[in-house]
From TrEMBL:
UniProt name for this protein: ABC transporter permease
Membrane topology, from the record: Multi-pass membrane protein
Pfam families: FtsX, MacB_PCD
GO MF entries: transmembrane transporter activity
GO cellular component, one term: plasma membrane
InterPro entries: ABC3_permease_C, MacB_PCD, Macrolide_Exporter_MacB
PANTHER family, sorted: ABC TRANSPORTER PERMEASE YTRF (PTHR30572:SF4), MEMBRANE COMPONENT OF TRANSPORTER-RELATED (PTHR30572)
Transmembrane portions of the chain: 21-41, 288-312, 341-362, 382-403
Family of this protein: Belongs to the ABC-4 integral membrane protein family.
Organism expressing this protein natively: Salinimicrobium profundisediminis
Record keywords, A-Z: Cell membrane, Membrane, Transmembrane, Transmembrane helix
Annotated ranges, domain ABC3 transporter permease C-terminal: 291-413
Annotated ranges, domain MacB-like periplasmic core: 21-248
Length: 420
C-alpha cells in the first residue's frame, strides 16, 4: 500500500528535527516501560505469595471443636465435645465431592515444653498423628526414607517422619537418622524418613521442626481413644470447599447434637476462600497497573499528537502541492497516520525492550539468592501482555495522528500554496 518513497518521506519528516522527535518518543517509551514493569512486579509479588502456599491443596478447610453457644436437646450451653473417628467416615459418606478428609491429633504447640528427646538432646516440637493423605494436602519433599503409609496405620506402628529442623536439633552432623529412635513424651518411635517443607508462610524454619506419626499409633500411645483433635478437608477439583463447608458442618452438628443455628460450636478456617481473596487482590493490582500505565502512556500520546500538529503546520506548502497534483484526502490522511503510528510503535517497542532488559537483570539477581523465604519471585510478563501492549500502541498511534490528519485534509490547495 505504501511505496518506498512513502517510507523515505516518513523517515525524512521524523528526522528533520531529530531532537524534538526523540523527546516526543520518550513519552511513549516511558509509558509502555512503566506499564510492563508494573505488570511484571505484580506478577513477581503474586509468585512470591503463592510460593508461600508451598503447593498446599488450596481447595481445603480446617475444622476444630469449640464450646457450644446454644442449649439443644436438653444439653446445656457451654458444652465441650470432641470429634470422633466415625465423623470422618460420615463426612465422606454424606457430603459429595470430598477428596480428602484427614483426622489429625497433635502434641506440643506454641510455647510448649520440651517433648522430644534423643539421648542427651531435647527439643520442643509439634508432633502430629496423621493419615498418609496429609502429604497431598500439605506437600513436603521427602529428603530420605519414606512417609507414613497404610501398613503403618493398620499395624499401629510407632514410626515417625521428622523435619530437617528436628534432625539438626537432635542429631550430630552426618549421623545416620533412618532406623534410629526418638522418644516422644516418653514413648519410643523409630525414624523412617525426613522431610523438608515447601513454601514460606512466615514460619519456614518452624515448618521443618514438625514430626509426623501414624494416627492410630498416636491415639494408642497417648490415650486418645477414638477422639480427633481437628480435621483437614479437601474437596475434589471442580468443587469448591467453600460451597461444601455448610454441609460438612451440618453433618457434625447432627452427629453431636449441636443447635442448627449455633455458629460458634464448630471452628473452621476456609483456605480456599482466603486464597480467592488473594487472587482477587492480584487482579485488582493488575487493573491498577494497566490504569496507571495507560495514563502515563496517554501523556506521551498527547505529546506525539501535538508534535504531529506542528509537523502538519510546517508542511502546509507540501500538502498544498500534493493536493494540487491530485492527492486524495485519504492519501494525505494515511500519510500523517502512518507517521504517527510509526513513531508510536518504534518508541513503544523500545520501551518494551528496555523493560524486558530490566526484568532480566532482576531475575538474574534473584537467581543467585535464596528465594524460598522471599515474597517476590520471578517477575515476568507473558506473551498476552506484549500483544496487549502492541495493540495499545497501534490504537494510540491512530488516536495521536487522527486530529493532525483531519487538520491536514482541511487545508485547501490554494490557501496552502499561498502560505509562506
Amino acid at each position: 500500500m505504501f511505496s518506498r518513497d512513502n517510507w523515505d518521506e516518513i523517515l525524512e519528516a521524523l528526522s528533520a528535527n531529530w531532537f524534538r522527535t526523540v523527546l516526543t518518543a520518550f513519552g511513549v517509551l516511558w509509558g509502555i516501560f512503566i506499564l510492563v514493569i508494573l505488570l511484571a512486579a505484580g506478577k513477581g509479588l503474586e509468585n512470591g505469595v503463592k510460593q508461600g502456599f508451598g503447593g498446599m491443596a488450596t481447595n481445603s478447610m480446617f475444622m476444630w471443636t469449640q464450646v457450644t453457644s446454644k442449649p439443644y436437646k436438653g444439653l446445656p450451653k457451654g458444652r465441650r465435645y470432641n470429634f470422633k473417628i466415625d465423623d470422618v467416615a460420615a463426612i465422606k459418606r454424606e457430603v459429595p465431592n470430598m477428596r480428602f478428609v484427614s483426622p489429625r491429633n497433635q502434641l506440643g504447640g506454641f510455647g510448649g515444653g520440651n517433648n522430644v528427646t534423643r539421648g542427651l538432646n531435647t527439643g520442643a516440637f509439634n508432633v502430629y498423628g496423621d493419615y498418609p493423605e496429609i502429604i497431598q494436602q500439605e506437600p513436603m519433599d521427602i529428603t530420605s526414607g519414606r512417609f507414613i503409609n497404610y501398613s503403618d496405620i493398620n499395624d499401629k506402628r510407632k514410626v515417625a517422619v521428622i523435619g530437617e529442623g528436628v534432625r539438626t536439633t537432635l542429631y550430630e552432623p552426618g549421623e545416620e537418622v533412618l532406623g534410629s529412635y526418638i522418644k516422644v513424651s516418653g514413648v519410643n518411635f523409630m525414624v523412617i524418613g525426613t522431610y523438608k517443607k515447601k513454601g514460606n508462610n512466615g514460619n519456614a524454619e518452624e515448618n521443618q521442626k514438625q514430626i509426623y506419626v501414624p494416627f492410630t499409633a498416636f491415639s494408642q500411645a497417648f490415650n486418645m481413644g477414638n477422639n480427633v483433635g481437628w480435621m483437614a478437608i479437601t474437596a475434589q477439583d471442580g468443587s469448591s470447599i467453600t460451597n461444601l463447608k455448610g454441609d460438612v458442618i451440618e453433618v457434625i452438628k447432627t452427629r453431636h447434637s449441636i443447635h442448627p443455628e449455633d455458629d460458634r460450636a464448630v471452628g473452621n478456617f476456609d483456605l480456599f476462600e482466603e486464597f480467592n481473596k488473594i487472587n482477587g487482590l492480584f487482579v485488582a493490582l493488575k487493573g491498577v497497573a494497566y490504569f496507571v500505565g495507560i495514563l502515563v502512556l496517554l501523556s506521551g500520546i498527547i505529546g506525539i499528537s501535538n508534535i504531529m500538529l506542528i509537523v502538519v503546520k510546517e508542511r502546509t506548502n507540501e500538502i498544498g502541492v500534493r493536493r494540487a497534483l491530485g492527492a486524495t484526502p485519504w492519501a494525505i490522511r494515511g500519510q500523517i497516520l502512518m507517521e504517527s503510528i510509526f513513531l508510536t510503535i518504534i518508541s513503544g517497542m523500545a520501551g518494551i525492550v528496555l523493560a524486558t532488559g530490566v526484568i532480566a537483570l532482576v531475575n538474574k539477581a534473584l537467581s543467585g539468592m535464596d528465594t524460598s523465604e522471599m515474597m517476590f519471585l520471578n517477575p515476568s510478563v507473558n506473551l498476552g501482555v506484549v500483544i496487549t501492549a502492541l495493540a495499545i500502541l497501534i490504537i494510540s498511534g491512530l488516536l495521536a495522528g487522527l486530529i493532525p490528519a483531519q487538520n491536514a485534509i482541511k487545508i485547501k490547495p490554494v490557501d496552502a500554496l499561498r502560505t509562506e
